Each structure stands twice: as C-alpha cells, then as structure tokens.
Amino acid sequence: MGDRADHHLLADEDLMPLIRDGDAAAFRVLYERHSTVAYSLAYRMTGRRAAAEDVVQEAFLSLWRSGGRYDRTRGSVRTWVLSIVRNRGIDALRRSVVQDRRRASDEGIEERFAAPDRTDAEVARRQEAGDVRSALADLPAEQGRAIELAYFGGYSHAEIATLLGTPIGTVKGRIRLGLDKLRNQLGDLIEAPA
Amino acid sequence: MTTRCPHHDDVGAWVLGALDPADERAFRAHLGTCARCQADVEELGAVADLLPAAAPRLVPPPHLGERLMAVVESEARPAPGAETGRSAPRRWLRIPLRVRPLPAIALACAVLAIGAVTGALVSGGDDRQTIKGFGPSGAQVALVVHDDHARLDVRDMPAPPAGRVYQVWLVHDGQAPRPTHALFTVPRDGRAEVVIPETLGDADRVLVTDEPPGGSLAPSTSPVAGAVLG
Q1: Shortest CA gap A5–chain B (Å)
Q2: Is the model more confident about B147 or about A44?
Q3: Over chain B, what is the mean pLDDT?
Q4: Is the per-residue pLDDT at A178 higher than 80?
Q5: Using alpha carbons only, what angle is made at residue B121 by residues B210 and B110, rounded to the nearest 5 degrees?
Q6: Chain segment A11-35, per-residue pLDDT in tens
Q7: ipTM exceeding the 0.85 mark
C-alpha cells in the first residue's frame, strides 16, 4: 500500500518511466485516473458495453507494453491515452458489426453507470465536459454532425459525404469551420504546448 | 489580404484522422512544406483533444480493471531489490493456481515432438550466453543466460490462446517441471523479453506452456517453446 500511496503523488508524466520499467502499481494508478474518460469515449464510439470494455482493455494493454513510446513534448498523458483509445475504437468499429448498431445503445446505461464527482479535479472535468458539449451543440448542425461522425464514428470524410449526401469538399469545409469555431469558444481549455 | 492555402480545408479532417488514404498522403507531403498548415494542425489538434470530454461520463465496470491488472501483474517486473518471486510473492499468486499436472514423461515426449531442441550457443562473452531455443513455426526463441539467471527473448511468437498466458518452467533431468513466476503474453508485434525471476539452479532446460491467467503449479499443456541449457 505504501508504494501505491507514493505513486498517487506522482504526476502522470512521472508515472510513465515507472510503467516503462514494468511497474504494475504505477500502471494501476494511471488506469484509475483515466479509465472513466477512456471508457466513456469507447462507449460513445461503440455504443456497447462489451465492445467498450474490449477497446479500453486493448488500449491500456497497448499502453502498458509500449509505455516507452510516450513523448511528453507532444502532449499530456491523458491526451495520449485517449488517442490510443480512439484508435482502438476505430479499429473495433471497422472490424465488427458494432458500427451498424452503435446508435441503438445499451438502454439506460448512462443513468445506471453515470460517474459521480469525487474530487475537485473531477468537478473541473465535468465543467470542461459541459463546456465542450455546449460548444458542440452551438455549432451549425451540419458542422457538428460532420465532426461527430468523424471523431466518434471513425468515418472518413468521403464516407461522411456519402452518408450526408454532400460533396466531399463540403464535408472538409464543414469540419474545418466547426473546429475553428470550437477553438474560438474553448480557447481557455486548450492545453498549452509542452 | 493573404492567399488561403489550397489545403486549408484538409487540416480539420486531418486532425480528426478522417482523410482518406490518398488525401492523407498528399496532405502529409504538403505539411512538411507549409508553415501555415503546421500551425493550423497544432491549433486544431488541441481542439480535437478536447472532444472526448463531450462523451457522457461512465464508470467502467470493476471487472474490467481486475481483468486488466491480472494481465499487467503477470507481465510486471519484480520490484528492485526483490530477491526472487519465491521469497517475495507477487500479487497474482493470490489467484488460485489450478493444478492440472501433465506427467513429466509426457512433457519430455512433447519436447521431442517439437524437435529442434538442440541448445545451440549463439553467442557468448562477458559471462553472458545466448542460447537458441525452439518454438512455434516462424518464431524465434532465445535464452539469454547471465550467471544463474536467464531471460527469454521471443520474436514473431503467436499470442497465447484467448484467456491464457504463457508460463515458463525449469526442468532438471526429466524431473517434474518447476513452475516459475514468469508469466507473459505477447503483443501484436510478437516480441517479448521475459525475465525469469527464479535462479536456474540445476535446470537443464527451460520450457514454455500456455496456462490459466494465474499460472499453474504443474504444466497443463504441452510446451510450445523452450531452450536446452548447454
């Protein structure tokens, strides 16, 4: 327990060298810190609990086995973890029938498993989440839809064009415009480069 | 008024990983030459990093973490200063070990069936020896021996069957294999370096079988890999 308590005092970036050296306790702390947002993202992408669990497990095992690849100059550990989760989520969507079913999500899961706020950091994260959702909701519908299909659906711009019945160039333009607006609205939340 | 880069609209789809392969290649090539697009990628990439926050927050089920930690702890290295797994039992030892013994004689026969068990000394020097081992077709297995300790290096090794892990055993002169605390799985690239925490002692061969996640006290399957000590 002493080791675990010590690990809890370390920043994510300081846990990574320990994880690279095979320290399971350091990995556990990192998992505890980021598993909720990772699982939330995976569930948002796949719409199925079992698929989301597989995605999170694959992502964290990949992180465990390749901890040495983390580069702190390219962003926070949280961002890195979520990029791995998203890539695994896209893999899952593309290799399974989940993609066809994900809109029919597991009924009621949001209410039954909603994450409580336990710390100030979690309260801040919830505030951040609210801001991001509001900003997305404020976008013109066609821009928000294109961004959501690309980010959470794992669709390419050409696939989105087919889905929405719009020219490919239009989809690219909508994504660009939407992201520009999000940047203007969420500037305070954007991570400063390391 | 400055002219807009022709790739201006590609940036958004790029940071979301949504460009088709042909456009992705073209933009990648362009990106190396366009400072404006590089700056845009930096800025819009930071926006994309915020998007996961829009997903409804859900707590992962406890069994997910337990399952994950079982694998991680089976692959973890002993803490510095830990003597061996036997004197410093690790967490996964609390998982009940299944005892489904495979007779030593059967194990020996299985080793012979795999063939190519000659312990070829590949390299030596500075009292470290690398012994070429055997394994599944296409896999490369080597045992790096230093003093009384060893590390198993595998390349192009298939992953163990679903829900199983590989376990390393030490065998002496046809006696029942001694279990080690070296449990491991193999990532997609087929590579793993597995430190065997136990001393080799009088072992004359090292074997690998697939076992339940917590390991076994006696092999429950035929060996899939190993090496013969010189």
Answers
A1: 16
A2: A44
A3: 77
A4: yes
A5: 30
A6: 999 999 999 888 999 999 999 999 9
A7: no
Confidence of residue B90 (pLDDT cuts 50, 70, 90): very low
Contact assignment for B64 to A53 by CB distance below 8 Å = yes
pLDDT at B1: 54
How far away is chain A from the Cα of B78, in angstroms, using its nearest Cα?
8
Local structure of A177: helix, strand or coil: helix
Q: Please tell me the distance from the alpha carbon of residue B101 to that of residue B176, in angstroms, as a whole number.
A: 9
How far apart are the C-alpha atoms of A89 and B98, rounded to whole Å? 34
Q: A191 CB contacts (<8 Å, ≥6 apart)?
A: A75, A76, A79, B46, B49
In B49-81, which positions are buried (b, 16+ CB within 10 angstroms) versus exposed (e)? bbbbbbbbbbebeeebbeebbbbbbbbbeeeee
DSSP designation for B56: P
Nearest by CB: B57 against A114, A171, A191: A114
For residue A90 the two structure tokens come to 């896209």
Nearest to A35 by CA among B27, B74, B216, B67: B67
What residue in A sits closest to B72 (Cα-Cα)?
Answer: A24
Q: Of B214, B198, B202, which is closest to residue B85 (Cα–Cα)?
A: B198
Interface test with A, best of B19, B49, B63 (most A CBs within 10 A): B49
CA angle A133, A138, A144 (to 5 degrees): 75
What's the confidence (pLDDT) of residue B210? 86
Inspect the interface and report whether the beta carbons of B16 and A61 lie closer than 8 Å: no
Nearest residue of A to residue B68, measured between CA atoms: A57
What ranges in B86-187 are assigned the alpha helix state H? 104-114
| Cα distance between residue A69 and residue A182, in whole Å | 30
Residue pLDDT, tens place only, B152-162:
999 999 888 88
If phi over 0 gives left and psi between -120 and 50 gives alpha, with beta otherwise, what is residue B226? left
Tell me if B27 sits within 8 A of B10, measured CB to CB: yes
pLDDT digit string (tens) for A76-85? 899 999 999 9
Give the pLDDT score at B37. 94
| Amino acid identity, position A187 | G
Which one, of B133, B220, B132, B208, lies nearest residue B170 by Cα? B208
Encoded amino acid at B16, one letter: L
Q: pLDDT at position A68, please?
A: 63
Rounded average pLDDT over A31-60: 92
B139 secondary structure, DSSP code: -
